[in-house]
Specification:
The chain is of the alpha/beta class. It folds into two domains: 56 residues, Roll (Vcp-like ATPase, Chain A, domain 2), CATH 3.10.330.20; 195 residues, Rossmann fold, CATH 3.40.50.150. Helices cover 25% and strands 28% of the residues. The strands form four sheets. A seven-stranded mixed sheet has the order 9-8-7-10-11-15-12, with helices on both faces. Strand 10, helix 7 and strand 11 form a beta-alpha-beta unit. It is globular and about 65 Å long. The chain starts with 8 loop residues before the first strand and ends in a 24-residue tail after the last helix.
Length: 286
Amino acid sequence: MAGITPGEQVFFYHDERLHYLRRVLEKGDFECHKGRIPWGQIIGCNYGEVVKTHMGVSFTLLSPSLADLMIGVKRRTTIAYPKDVGYMLLRASIAPGVRVAEVGSGSGALTFILARYVQPQGHVYSFERRPEFLEVAMANVARLGMEEFVTFELRDVEKQGFGVRGIDVCVVDVPEPWGIVPHAAKALVCAGRWVSLSPTTEQLQETRKALGKHGFTRFEVWEVMLREMLIRPQGARPRERMISHTAYLAFAEIAEHNPDASNAQQTIDNSPAGNRLSLQDEESSI
């Protein structure tokens, strides 16, 4: 079993309140208020080993979960929460080989998860209209090693369209998702899937109107609640605090009779990155 190497992400776990996600460096120390550990003592260790700081506090070296990595990205925006993303992946059938268009790169946390699930044959096309957000998202995805499976583009999809066709799933996380619907209808393959994340019911009403107008069917909305249980020797109970409402997840699928979907033709290039769609000119309005 290969040991931990510089550049890897390690989850230092002491207990439910004291834990840290850190990238291993070649020089220096892991530091916290409970002491420090030279990185040289971490490198070569195996996950599951227990190490101690100079103050004698023990930490178990764990391999971070995808949820840990997602929550741990550097961010300038809010991010989609793992509880929502898990159901979204299943409901939208996001799996290896799927081609995803993401509108609203944000900090790249969701982009990273999408790329992890569509690799190695699939691809994610992530669009962001604000350059400062796009820069952060690109850096986060590269830091997590998924840049090969993502094409980022500075683009206002509502005004310019996607510029790609043959998309299997469209994931939208912007304040006015209904403005993206006409372009999604063109970009998606027949029976392609729509997913949007919205914090308010008013957004859902406008989105549903637009989806119905442009040939989408099977409109559904779900809200995911997740509450941790505290298991103690003296008894078990739910944790008092929880992340409750984060977003409403809206799903729809485009019907075969929709002319925009029927005419969306898939084109594949021969780039070494794999199954990528080539950019095409697209009308910015319907």
